[in-house]
Design a protein that fits this description.
The protein is of the alpha+beta class. The relative contact order is 0.10. The radius of gyration is 26 Å and the shape is globular. Helix 4 packs across helix 5, helix 10 packs across helix 12 and helix 12 packs across helix 13.
């Protein structure tokens, strides 16, 4: 049982990365996704990969899965009918929300409907104070009355969020017991389980989303697990969380909201792993797929974590890899707005019908069509020719754009790419410049099926000197699943002044969180040698409305005794405040808001770092074709297969590098160094 298989389901392709932990043999594989039932592509792809590459599925110990099921359900509003239950007087909290307009000047924009309509929102007579002590106890009679009303509503799932339940879950648990007594199969999400953290609206919304996704995700995971049990007997199924770690199928069914950014998070984890092996630990990632591009910042080989994100317009308060997403992908459609200006995305041709050149009925010009017209993509097609592309259809789709703008076909294609690049450049700026980081001090890592096609232009716009292209750019998300840890996050909300008088309370809170983490380790049967606990505090100045996450300690096991002293905590907060805001006030009072404990169980045994390759001559190109790198003229460009490029090789563009899962154009004058791990490090001309 030595094989581990990572499976990432995207909108266009389902990617596989399999590795034998004994021999070190690795296999990558892609096949088209099946949007109607993502599990179908997984099961079919496993069988196809096993046959094509002689992968012994019977020897697979673990399947790690990145999924878009939850994300798509939120985007398309195809979740369950839910009942939302609140403390009496707060039934409309989900609809009231925050007094923030995401589009300030759009007077015609309707506010999205809450996940639970007015008829599906219920109140319960109970009340806790900020300490978690009962002001109005929940009686058995009131719990039974509310439970009957909720069950009679016909809801598929229930979200319960009482005031201050993060300090004391007793009332929520009492109502859940009353509901289960009447309807034992009805799924109930409690805010004290989903995210026991202060800020009422975000906690309620996160709990409601969890309930909204539960029936769908539970059914999906159960069907997938059953199918895998037939195809890969004995293999454990782990599903990737938005925070970049795996959880069991059982916990996925209980907490599906944690998978809202499952796939992109796996990409960031894979990118961090590759960055360290390539000797470039500080990177900004550009993960460009068929519909969107995801950007993340990695420092010292570690991904940034955020605890507040909007997904499909819904605020979610959970640990997530900090990713910015922009509607720029290979399928992004070029179109003219009412003002006559050319736009690219966020409208996408998707997997079906796909770009016009796919020959599946699409007629509108896309980024992929533009790349084909410029010669950057091979007319023989994607997936080593298994997915042919039609240059004539691509040219036909772009002709109306060229005619309307009054330029040549190639200039129109370059314009489409320039707009897509501008969209992605803004995203990189948001994740770097607006976070106090200089992008010129980072390397741009390009992956996803289309990332390498456009990374050079994005890097040039930002003054970045190097682009790193992984060995298998289109499979990085699946590779990230292979190297992910088993992971669980614990949180305790407790406002405490950073003062010596309160440090014993803080230490007790840390000890309590560590005990919960230890219980989780035991429940997951994780060996002691694989365990790590990481403690972080949410700190802010008294009077501030938002806090900064400050890492505090990391060790195989932690307790309250591992809390740093007040001076060390204050200095760590000052450094974080300087990085975020450019200043700090050493005389102002500081307070703790949340205690966060992350438990990690290492599943992946890291390989030895590869030895540097010896300089060696380049292989012969497989052919030449004209490629447009600018609007002046095409250049006769050599074409190389990626698998023929060995560590130690260096060369200067122009060149096109073709491989199964991606295409990398090397612009004239840029220099490529093939790193020991097989990554290509591209140094931009003149950088």
């Amino acid at each position: 049982m030595s094989w581990t298989i990572g499976v990432d389901v995207g909108g266009t392709f389902t990617d596989f990365h399999a590795r034998d932990g004994v021999s070190g043999r690795e296999v990558v594989f892609k096949r088209p996704s099946t949007p109607a039932d993502p599990g179908e592509a997984i099961l079919s792809g496993l069988a196809e990969m096993a046959e094509a590459h002689d992968v012994p599925l019977a020897e697979a110990a673990r399947i790690a899965h990145g999924t878009t099921v939850a994300t798509n359900a939120l985007i398309q509003r195809k979740g369950a009918s839910i009942a939302a239950v609140a403390t009496k007087g707060f039934r409309d909290l989900l609809e009231i929300g925050r007094q923030v307009r995401p589009h300030m000047y759009d007077l015609n924009l309707d506010k999205p409907e809450p996940l639970a309509g007015e008829a599906m929102r219920f109140e319960v007579a109970e009340r806790l104070d900020w300490r978690g002590e009962a002001v109005l106890p929940l009686t058995d009679a009131e719990a039974a009355r509310a439970a009957r009303e909720i069950v009679d509503s016909g809801a598929d799932a229930v979200a319960v969020c009482f005031l201050f339940a993060y300090r004391n879950p007793a009332h929520e648990q009492q109502l859940a017991d009353a509901i289960k007594a009447i309807a034992p199969n009805l799924r109930v999400s409690l805010s004290s389980d989903v995210q026991p953290e202060f800020r009422e609206y975000e906690r309620f919304q996160t709990t409601a989303i969890n309930a909204y996704l539960q029936p769908l995700m539970a059914g999906y995971v159960e069907r997938l697990a059953a199918g895998l049990n037939d195809a890969v007997k004995g293999a454990a199924l782990g599903v990737n969380q938005s925070s970049g770690g795996l959880m069991s199928a059982k916990r996925t069914a209980s907490f599906p909201v944690r998978t809202a950014l499952s796939g992109p998070a796996a990409g960031a984890v894979g990118a961090a792993h590759i960055a360290l092996r390539a000797g470039r630990p500080n990177v900004v990632t550009l993960d460009m797929g068929g519909t969107s591009a995801d950007v993340a910042l990695i420092e010292d080989g570690r991904t940034e974590i955020a605890f507040q994100r909007d997904v499909a317009g819904f605020p979610i308060r959970l640990a997530m890899v900090d990713i910015d997403t922009v509607g720029a992908g290979g399928g992004s459609i070029a179109w003219f707005d009412r003002d006559g200006l050319l736009k690219v995305g966020p409208i996408s041709a998707g997997a079906v019908p796909g770009p016009a050149c796919y020959g599946q009925g699409g007629t509108e010009p896309t980024v992929t069509d533009a790349n084909l017209v410029l010669g950057r993509l091979s007319p023989t097609g994607l997936l080593d020719g298994a997915m042919p592309l039609d240059p004539v259809v691509a040219e036909t789709s772009l002709k109306p754009v060229a005619e309307k703008v009054g330029v040549s076909l190639q200039e129109a294609a370059l314009g489409v790419l320039a707009i897509a690049v501008a969209n992605m450049t803004r995203s990189v700026r948001r994740m770097s410049v607006e976070r106090g980081r200089d992008p010129r001090e980072f390397v741009l890592m390009a992956f996803g099926g289309a990332g390498a096609l456009h990374a050079r232009e994005v890097a040039a716009e930002l003054g970045m000197g190097e682009v790193l292209v992984p060995p298998s750019p289109g499979i990085v998300c699946a590779e990230g699943l292979l190297v992910s840890d088993q992971k669980e996050d614990f949180v305790a909300s407790l406002r405490l002044p950073l003062h010596a008088d309160q440090m014993s309370v803080a230490a007790d809170t840390v000890t309590s969180l560590a005990a919960r983490a230890a219980e989780w380790f035991d429940a997951e049967n994780l060996p002691d040698a694989t365990r790590t606990m990481e403690l972080a505090l949410d700190l802010r100045y008294v009077g501030q409305n938002f806090e900064l996450i400050v890492p505090v300690a990391s060790a195989p096991s932690l307790s309250g005794a591992d809390m740093p002293d007040i001076k060390a905590l204050a200095n760590a907060f000052f450094a974080a405040h300087d990085r975020a805001y450019g200043f700090h006030d050493p005389g102002a009072a500081i307070e703790i808001v949340n205690f966060r404990m992350t438990a990690r169980g290492r599943l992946y045994d890291a390989e030895d770092m590869p030895e540097p390759g010896k300089a060696q001559p380049m292989p012969e190109p497989t052919g030449h074709r004209p490629v447009w790198f600018d609007g002046k003229a095409s250049m006769e460009t050599p074409i190389y297969r990626r698998e023929t490029l060995a560590p130690g090789m260096t060369f200067t563009g122009p060149a096109i590098i073709d491989q199964l899962d991606a295409t990398t154009p090397v612009h004239p004058g840029d220099t490529v160094d093939v790193r020991p791990d097989g990554s290509m490090l591209i140094a931009l001309k003149g950088a």
